[in-house]
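hiii, so i know i said id send this last week but things got crazy w the move. better late than never?? heres the sequnce for the chain we talked about at the cafe, plus the structure i predicted for it. fair warning i was half asleep when i ran it
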Amino acid sequence: MFQGIVLEKGEAGFVAGVRELDDAALAANAADGDVVVRIGWSTINFKDGLAITNRSPVVRKWPMVPGIDGAGVVESSTNADFKAGDRVVLNGWGVGETHWGCLAGKARLKGQWLVPLPAALTERDAMAIGTAGYTAMLCVMALDRDAVKPGDGEVLVTGAAGGVGSVAIALLAGRGYKVVASTGRAAEADYLKGLGAAEVIDRAALSEPGKPMQKERWSGVVDCVGSHTLANACAQTRYRGTVTACGLAQGMDFPSSVAPFILRGVRLLGIDSVMCPMPDRRTAWSLLAAELDRAKLAAITTEIGLAESLTRAGDVLAGKIRGRLVVDVNR
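okay and structure toks below
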């Protein structure tokens, strides 16, 4: 037996709670998984918050164990690429939406979804990073591929106090970029500067409707917010600069024009972490293991137990969480 968060929906409505589960329940609800992982750590991402609070229809199958991220040790496997004792990390692939996820003591997963955990990272480290940090690294990799160099000018990170933003600041500052952090939480300025931000600006400067072409400032952008913030970031990006878009905290709309793209050659790159090809995943995790300052990772992270996930999920959606919540699924 092991514990897990179970989401149920029926005639009585929506219910979320911690339940005792067993291998039979796991097999019945994740029958297409060929690797059983004993999960040590998970985390609460924005999508997990939506699922646990039922504020958006992200869950497509009931009942569901949420948790789009997990790290642990292989217990058994019929997949040739993994054997008992291997340490692995899981991000995305519809887990926690259409396939039972990792906010539980065990998960039955497809081997093709798993990344071997780099030796330099503990399972807890991996979930302190989670999809948020892995997405941040995908953004940094995209800026690098587009040849945005530290000497080219300032790089903007929006939604800076959240999980993606916090890790992005630490990674970019570690590579020598001058990072400007945009946040609505002025009290977090010292925290953001501790991660490496050279300047902290109020998100209000970007979150209202603006002109389609504005004064050039950013050589690169990591945007976690969308809507007017993304539109203004594009309007302020320098000639042939690059904007990476990975979030929608302000909204899914994009009230912009083609002007920055055809008059300044600005490039807008969408960053998908859910179905990202395996070679990019492995590269991202390898770079995270090599580059992410563990002291900064510790500053980003708050640890909670499994049951606390139910109460903290709403805080994630409300933007009340600094950095990352890492979940010890066995307490």
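btw The first strand starts at residue 2 and ends at 10. thought thatd interest u
miss u guys!!
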